[in-house]
From TrEMBL:
The chain crosses the membrane at residues 26-48, 68-92. Keywords: Membrane, Transmembrane, Transmembrane helix. It comes from Salinirubellus salinus. The keyword Transmembrane applies. It comes from the Archaea. It holds the Pfam family DUF7520. This is Cox cluster protein.
Amino acid sequence: MSDSTSTEEGFTGVDEPTVGLSGRRLVATLYVIVVGIATFTGFVLGVIGPRDLDPQLFGFVDMPPTPLGMAAYGGITLATVLGVLLVGVMFVSSRYVD
């Protein structure tokens, strides 16, 4: 008689990774998607070209109101704001692990 539990096909003794996204990977994916949407929206606003459009990156860097300038403004601004918040959350979560 053989012991079927130890010779089971496909059993490696190693936990298989679960299918899906981990928490950090999900947040990073959402971050990239949201920054991409902001960049695209800035580009669209630059194409439309409303009057009196004078973007200033971080309050002191003048950006051109062209499609590329507006895309850079939208992407950089949101990436910086969300990036600082995400780094803060990651720092706090790594310091206070249950």
